[in-house]
Amino acid sequence: GQNIDQPTEMTATEGAIVQINCTYQTSGFNGLFWYQQHAGEAPTFLSYNVLDGLEEKGRFSSFLSRSKGYSYLLLKELQMKDSASYLCAVQDSNYQLIWGAGTKLIIKP
Amino acid sequence: IAGITQAPTSQILAAGRRMTLRCTQDMRHNAMYWYRQDLGLGLRLIHYSNTAGTTGKGEVPDGYSVSRANTDDFPLTLASAVPSQTSVYFCASSFSGGSTDTQYFGPGTRLTVL
User: Fold this and answer.
1) pLDDT (0 to 100) of residue B1
2) Which residues of B touch A (CB under 8 A)?
3) Structure confidence by residue, pLDDT tens digits, B4-43
4) CB contacts < 8 Å between A and B, how many?
């Protein structure tokens, strides 16, 4: 079967760094996406990885290891507005997105 | 309009009633999707359409139908609503439905079936 695993909830301190992990087992792989979702709102695109390595975009970076079926999202210089759920999704062999349940990130002052 | 709109924003529906959730995008995207999001579960694909005139079944299609008469609109119909269809429904669109294709989401419809 297809499976995406992420921690349910994480807590971090404002100004700190947090790493949100995602492991996956899917039928085929055409890329991995990270989305941010604030409570009561729609998911919004953060990053996309299809090759191994690190993609950096401002305070956010995303890493992929295809051989390990593993990705992480790294958030630096955390701000209160970063409190949200972070969704990992893998595009399978049919180009459909398989979604993890999301990681709720709580930022404390 | 800019992006994707959904209507209604929320709805309370009696079981057994028919309901159509509307979705419109103005980005000229070819592919559109309907997902449901339930607490503790990832987004689950209900139906999708890679281009106007074609539709396909996702992971959880039972009890739902869709049509894609033109590029912009992708309505989702519940023929006879049941309480297990209580959920938040998101419509999304992407340029082509292929590799590297980013999906953009509408604001969602919160549906309660009693």
Assistant:
1) 54
2) 40-45, 48, 58, 90, 97-108
3) 999 999 999 999 999 999 999 999 999 999 999 999 898 9
4) 50
Greater confidence (B110 vs B98) lies with B110
By the 8 A CB rule, do A49 and A71 touch? Answer: yes
Coil vs helix vs strand at B23:
strand
What is the structure's pLDDT at A35? 98
Asked if B58's CB is within 8 angstroms of A45's CB, the reply is: no
Is the Cα torsion angle B12, B17, B87, B101 positive or negative in sign?
A: negative
Contact at CB, A95 and B101, closer than 8 angstroms: yes
Give the residue carrying structure tokens 């103005």.
B26
DSSP-derived secondary structure for A18-38: EEEEEEEE-SS-S-EEEEEE-
The shortest CB-CB distance from B99 to any of A44, A91, A101 is to A91
Task: List C-alpha distances in Å: B51 to A28, A109, B2, B10, B44.
Answer: 23, 47, 20, 27, 20
For the cut 80, the answer to whether the pLDDT of residue B99 exceeds it is no
CB contact under 8 A, A96 and B45: yes
Residue tagged 């509307």 (tokens): B22
Q: Residues A68-105: pLDDT tens digits?
A: 999 999 999 999 999 999 999 999 988 899 999 999 99
Is pLDDT at B60 greater than 90 in this prediction?
A: yes
Average pLDDT over every residue of B78-105:
93
Cβ contact A88:A62 at 8 Å = no
